[in-house]
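pasting input
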Amino acid sequence: MAGLTANSGIDRRRRFTNQAMTGLIYVAVGLAIAPLVVILADVAVRGAPVMSVAFFTHLPTPVGTPGGGIANAIIGSFIMVGLACLIAIPMGVGAGIFFSEWPESRLSTVSSFLNDVLAEFPSIVVGIFVYVVVVLATGTFSALAGGIALAIIMIPIVARTTEESLKLVPRNLREASMALGIPRWKTVLSIVISTGRAGLFTGILLAVARAAGETAPLLLTALGNTFYAKGLMNPIAALPLTIYTYGISPFPDWQADAWGAALVLIAFMLALNLTIKLTVGRKMSHVRPEN
Amino acid sequence: MVAAAAVGIVVLMGALAYELFLGSKVSLDKYGLSFLLGTTWDPAHNVYGALPYIYGTVLTSALSLLIGLPVSIGVAVFLVEKLKRRQNEAHIIGTTVELLAAVPSVIYGLWGLFVLSPLLKAYVERPLHNYVGFIPTFSGTPFGLDFFTAGVILAIMIIPTVSAISRSVLNAVPNSQREAMYAIGATDWEVITKGILPYARSGLFGATILGLGRAVGETMAVTMVIGNSTRITADLFSPGYTLASAIANQFSETSSPLSSAALIELGLILFFVALAINIFARSLLWRMSRMTKVRV
């Protein structure tokens, strides 16, 4: 103990540094959480005044005419996300099953790696790709092009979550099934997928949430429309596009509508995300390995 | 069947690269590599150089890491080291921070445009300009819609990514690293800086690089707050442009085959930068996983 008292000056400095740095860590946590609170509050406060039934059921009106709504954008978003699901769910789930059940194949390694890269890819690059391949080829901006762009963004998310949830399925279930002489593909279809379906569903919701908020690729593919789209091969409106074009417009009533659309979008996204977090949190708590 | 889906992803990546090459052919043929160094982007005279956009992308991404990285690592350290015995609280705070990632980028843009930019202009840019304006980066007249605001909004946007990955990296650090330090009387801070962070550095570096990837490719939020100017300047308070925001902003008004090819070539640059960043980050995280036998 004598040594400790002799070094008390150094000890005091060490203790002080420790406390100061702990304080800074608390500041960091505050700085990380504050923006979420402020953004949610701002969107709620600025978006609330335009909320009305008409806002959800009417088409946009010209500047200066009150009573405009975002019905076309809401419908447009649903159409394109729906289209994207049609493409992304089979492909994403298929790839995820392959990564999880045939990890030994070389294709699995390569494709799984590219899938990770694709998941982190700037969405605007996906937008240009679809612009070149679909918009230029068909000669028109369209709901179809928008749906394809969103699908490319959804695929890696669906694939990754499918893989992870299937990997949680205990190995002995697979072995038990194969020991009964059930072929591998049938084991996967009937045993593995039905056991891991909750996680699979979560992954799809996660991907839908991501796609519903995407803007950049839609600028280059769906373009936007102030009316209802006449078909899948015509330009179409979407919620994020409305937020963007109204937000950067110089007209106060359009800007107010942008905040309203933002409130609608964020409410949808948060509801989806909280559902996911809560269900996954509960499901994973008993399987997560302690470390 | 499922193998076909896996093949599909490989084909998709290949097609992405191929089509971007094809789409930018006119511009590639005309400028070659000098496209990267051209400082003039003038659709009226059909002259295209990408340097202003590359510069803006590098500057705003660097700024976002400068601000976002310490905060992200702080959050990760807090969740893993300070809340070690309180998993429930850690889960709640971690989820809250991760919810930031669920906010669509266009909403960050809207908020940045109407709320953050005026605030930064009045309470950060003006004071910096008035008191330390002799430093070139702060010398310009605060504009609000500029590199600085774009950097701040990007910092907010990369925090959930970087902190979530850093958190799993720190979780992978074996307890013996901590226990050995505590056993010789180290304080919490000493354990963190000498026992944990050095051990986790390749993983944390990987997390940082992934955050960088996010910042480089982020489009909408930046487009709405950066002010759109192709001037190259060290002044953080003047408007600028990034690769992604140039594409988003100018695509609907391309005037000639060359101008649309030049924009697609900006996308091609982004493609390769994102590819390089991601491969690098993955390899760092992979090394961390091998070292600790825990997937991060």
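fyi Residues 86 and 94 of chain B are 12 Å apart (CA to CA).
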